[in-house]
Amino acid sequence: MKSVDLNILYAFLDVGKGHAHRVRSCCPEFQNYGDVTLLASGGKTTSLGEGLEIHERLRGLTLKYGKNKVNWLWTIIRNGCFLPKTGLDILTRALWMNGRFNVLINDHEPVTSWAARLVNAGAMIDPRHFKRIVTWSFSHHVSFLSRKVPRPKYSSKSLEVFLASFAPCQRKRGIHFDNYEPWIKTPLISEELRKKKRERPVRNKHCTVYLPGVSIDNLISRLGSIKQTSWEIFHPHCKETVVDGNVTVLKTDQINYAESLASADCMITSGGMGGPADALYLGIPALIFPQGGQAEQLYNAAAAELLGHQVFWQGGFPKESTSVISKFVNKAENRIPIEYPDHIRETVQGMIAETESILVV
């Protein structure tokens, strides 16, 4: 059997710390098997750290937020203005990808996914001029395609159709709170947090907070009024540390976040996957505020609630939630931690082995 050189395009939607964390965790492992080019879309300027450079950027399609919920009017206006350019991007990226890459690892990035479909359609018609690309959806979002993944009370069929068509790929590996299917893997816990857990830090009287959809001023005002604990808030808009009474606001870097959470009594977080998973791994209770209008976060919250976390289902971050937060902090008790294994090497090896079996003639 002939060997094949792998030229890998790793494309991800750069709109939250979860996507970037998966790239940091998995890209070095993919680099052991071939040349890897990183492409990001979404308009952010995430730094992936030493040894990982984003080579290509696209504007992409993203949601716009305000007051911890999706601003659908601004989202439609913003994306509608750039839809013609997105269509052009798909065509130009298809030409760029053809013959340059034979593997696509896609973390919910639509342009490269649809561009690869065009290339593969061309390869079926004219294999001399179009070269096949093996495509993998490697994301949290793809796990929602499984009927075994928990759903909120009012789940959306249209969401599942949207997810299936937003960034479609031939093969899939999902990430979720549990192994709901053989192809769904458990959360990718950062090495910083694993290290802090091994050190068994002393729990301090504080609550770690990650609510990127709520303004810093609103968080300081609301949480600062609850005096029975101190608050360590990590926020993407924080440029330098701010201390205001019993509230400290910090930049969202991995080391400080891991140190804070590993020694916290409890956590308040949005409905993204990372925060609830980290709390489950450490065995600390979390109060989840899903961002309104963000169906993915509602699905995450439903699954996290079954595993013991508390969810504020009313949406947003209203003043009425202050009493809920106060009661949550008062009754917060440690849980039995979930020992999520480090499966990155095994998962990537399996994906590469399957890819090579397809490409080798």
Concise structural overview:
The protein is α/β, with parallel strands linked by helices and 361 residues long.
Task: Report on this structure.
The protein has 361 residues and is α/β, with parallel strands linked by helices. It folds into 2 domains: 6-186 and 342-359, Rossmann fold (3-Layer(aba) Sandwich); 191-331, Rossmann fold (3-Layer(aba) Sandwich). 39% of the residues lie in helices and 19% in strands. The protein is built from 11 helices and 16 strands. The strands form 3 sheets. Strands 3-2-1-6-7-8-9 form a 7-stranded parallel sheet, sandwiched between helices. Strands 12-13-11-10-14-15-16 form a 7-stranded mixed sheet, with helices on both faces. A two-stranded antiparallel ribbon has the order 4-5. Helix 8 (274-282) links the parallel strand 14 (266-270) and strand 15 (286-289). Helix 1 (17-30) packs across helix 11, helix 2 packs parallel to helix 3 (110-125) and helix 5 (191-198) packs parallel to helix 7 (254-262). It is elongated and about 70 Å long. The model has no long low-confidence stretch (mean pLDDT 89).
